[in-house]
Design goal:
With 287 residues, the chain is mainly α. The protein contains 11 helices and 7 strands. Heme c 1 binds at residues 105, 137.
Length: 287
């Protein structure tokens, strides 16, 4: 753990200076300006890693290291998430007890829509993630909700993500002050330090992508949600976006929030919006 802290803190000052110079509005915006935020956010990574193709950022640590990328490409011939894809496809098409299916709850029958989630629901006044929408669909049809962090939910979202592979992330922020507030809240959560290690999400995924924490190479924040859900060797199984947020909080010794808490939904909204224009690559696999 001491090695981890030294590694990250050693690069902190230089990274902060570089990020402040390239994207000042993201760090200290004086007004909510998502369009400018997204452009600055993406440019920061494009300039920091000029040899990485823009669309490759969605492949996380594999875009940062050639040896790791070759290993991953070989693994993709028999991907570890394949079992989840098959299970998710079967679950998606299996009718509920009332005869309806998930397709009845989503536009385009739920196929090829991952790139539009999360979205801001103007009637509710809050961000709605794909995981939340799936459980609401189940409950509206008399079924019990699934766990938000793994197993069935991961399989369902894996299948839905797979039907959107290659489609470009396309998150909207409507002209609604509540939507702007949700985006800003997500951005604030992303950059706020917390926990015993006093880390923010940005400490690892903006300041130190490509660097190692023990055997793990840190992923860039840009495109990090495009690969969700993911199979992680560390988990020996699949996990959802909710599970990833909970795990990140735990790893920095912060108190995790409840899955689908407003803050998690808002930070997913922020990360998805700044990844607009990059392809969906989920389900993904990570070390």
């Amino acid at each position: 753990m001491k090695t981890r802290s030294v590694l990250l803190l050693g690069s902190l000052s230089a990274a902060l200076v570089a990020f402040a110079l390239t994207s000042p509005r993201v760090v200290a915006a004086d007004k909510v300006d998502p369009v400018t935020d997204a452009k600055a956010f993406q440019n920061f990574f494009f300039q920091k890693f000029p040899d990485v193709k823009h669309e490759d950022f969605v492949n996380g640590p594999y875009s940062m290291n050639e040896d790791l990328k070759r290993q991953w490409q070989e693994k993709e011939e028999f991907p570890p998430y394949e079992f989840a894809l098959e299970a998710g496809k079967e679950m998606f098409s299996t009718p509920f007890k009332n005869g309806k299916t998930y397709a009845d709850c989503f536009p385009n029958g739920g196929i090829g829509i991952r790139q539009n989630y999360p979205y801001f629901d103007e009637k509710e006044g809050k961000v709605v993630t794909l995981e939340l929408a799936l459980n609401r669909c189940r409950e509206a049809n008399g079924e019990a909700p699934y766990s938000y962090v793994k197993d069935e939910m991961a399989s369902l979202t894996a299948y839905m993500a797979y039907t959107s592979r290659g489609k470009l992330m396309d998150i909207k922020i409507p002209d609604d002050p509540r939507a702007l507030a949700a985006y800003e809240n997500g951005k604030r959560y992303f950059y706020t330090r917390r926990g015993q290690m006093n880390f923010s999400c940005a400490s690892c995924h903006v300041q130190s992508p490509g660097e190692r924490i023990r055997a793990e190479i840190l992923a860039p924040a840009l495109g990090i949600v495009n690969a969700m859900p993911i199979y992680r060797s560390e988990w020996s199984g699949m996990g959802t976006t909710s599970r990833r947020f909970v795990t990140c909080n735990s790893q920095t010794r912060a108190v995790p929030l409840e899955p689908q808490a407003d803050e998690y939904r808002d930070v997913e909204y922020f990360l998805s919006y700044v990844a607009n224009g990059l392809p969906i690559s989920g389900p993904g696999a990570r070390p």
